Structures are given as C-alpha cells and as structure tokens.
Amino acid sequence: MPVARMDEGSFGGRGGIRLFFRRWRPEPEGGGAPVVIAHGLAEHSGRYERLGSFLAGRGVPVWAFDHRGHGRSDGPRVHVDRFDDYLEDLDRFLDRVQADAGQTPVLLGHSMGGLIALSYALARPQRLAGLVLSSPWLRTRVPISTFRRAVARVLSGVWPRFRFPIADQGAGISRDTEVVRQYREDPLVARSVTARWFVSCEQEQARVMERAGALEVPVLFLVAGSDTLVWPEATRAVYEAARGPKEWHLYEDRYHEVFNDPGYEEVMETLWRWLVARGLAQPPGV
C-alpha cells in the first residue's frame, strides 16, 4: 500500500491574495484522480489530515486549500466582496492541481465548502470528474432572527465588513468530545463573520437551490441525519432535482462532520468505493 506524504505551499487567488494549501501525496504514486477538498465555515484544511492520509494511503492524491479569510490564507477573516471570489479562487487551485496531476479532479465540499463546490459544479461542470457533498450548507438550521437578517442586509451595503460573532458550533460538529475540544481550542478557527459574507452566502444558497435541476456532474451525497447546523432536507431536495449520476447516503445518528464523527471509517469506505466504482481510483493490486 502507498504511504501518504504531506507538504504545503501557496498560490495566488483572485486579486493576488495569497492562499495556503496542503497536499497529501501517495508514495509510490497511484493511479487515482486527484481529490480537492473545499472546507467548511471558519475552519481550515488542516482539519482534513485523517481524510487526506486515508485517500493518499490508497493511491489517491489529495489537495486542500484554506479559503480566503480562513486558516493560514490571507484576507479579512471570513469575508468576501462577492461569493464568486470563492469560485475564482477554486478555479485557480484546480488549474494548479490538474497541471500537477494530469487528470481532471474530483471536488469534495463540506458544509460551506459544499455550497461552494455545488455552485462551482453548476457553473463549470466540465472542470470536474465528480462531486462529493458532505453535509452541504444549503439551509441554516441554527436559528437566525428575521431582525438579524434584515440588519445584515443593510450593513452589507453600507458597512460590509461589520462583524457578527459565530455562535459556538462545537457541540454540533461531532459526538467525539476530543474533536469538539480540538475545534474549540484551535487558534485557526475563526470566531466571527462579516455582514457581506453572510448576505452573499444566503443569496448563493437560494441560487443553488433554484438551479439544482441543472446538476449533471456525478455526485455522491454524504449526509448527517442528526445534523443541528444545516438542514438535511435541503440537501435531499438537491439530490432529487439532480439529473446526473447520483448516490445518496444518510447516516441517521451522525453529527455534522461525518468525517470526524464516530463511525467515520464507514463514511471513508463509502467514498473510496464510489471513487473505485467510477474509475476515479484503483483498488489495491491493480
């Protein structure tokens, strides 16, 4: 079996902003299409070490970058001038990945990264060999008052970088108390968002839901059934509307981060089997 080796680097996103990335390379090199991870709100690529090592250990190269304003990337914390900033950054990263690997990548998006990944797949399907959505953030389950939404819309126009604190999400990400502790103590996890970021994301959620019927990229849905942060029902609506090859897995008792919740091994094996079945990874000995 290959051994995973992790290295780091950076690249220029839209506007020349420096974006940090990690990659997990199999040694020796395998025959799998590269998997690109788009992480969730407030977190960073370093929280995907286990998944990156798992796939690289089976011959699949894995790349993940910190979105602008996240982790070790530059930019105001959790802020975008427009949602398309995320898509343009991702487009540049995919250029780098494909040039290195020589193959069209698979895009895996978790939570906010799932929203970014789905939006990208709808806009530029020819760039992807497949799409994996892990508890995508298509509708917020955490209560947000009508008043707060109205204030955010006003501030987005007149004071776009006004900051709102992020409610503690730790208890909702995993049933593993060690995962929760590490998340809460992680200095790279952001604690606030801007008004423009919030409004831009909610507008993109609405656009994605409206356009879901145009989704033709092969897609694997990995959904936490006991998610308290996002609504699984919104993800199911996208699954029902998608026209391309699709596969649905609902993990009834799981919390939001299905790759960090107890039983994550089953989820990783499901992902692996899907990659092999679609010819995007090679089983051992091939």
Automatic annotation (TrEMBL):
The superkingdom listed in its UniProt entry is: Bacteria
The record's section on InterPro entries has:
AB_hydrolase_1, AB_hydrolase_fold, Hydrolase_4, MAG_DAG_Lipase
Record Gene3D superfamilies: alpha/beta hydrolase
> What are the alphabetically sorted keywords of the record?
Hydrolase
Q: Which residues form the Serine aminopeptidase S33 domain?
A: 34-262
Q: Which residues form a coiled coil?
A: none
Q: Does the keyword rRNA processing apply?
A: no
Query: Annotated Gene Ontology MF terms?
Result: hydrolase activity
The record's SUPFAM superfamilies line, in alphabetical order, gives: alpha/beta-Hydrolases
**Key word Hydrolase present:** yes
What is this protein's record name? Hydrolase
- Organism of origin is Caldinitratiruptor microaerophilus
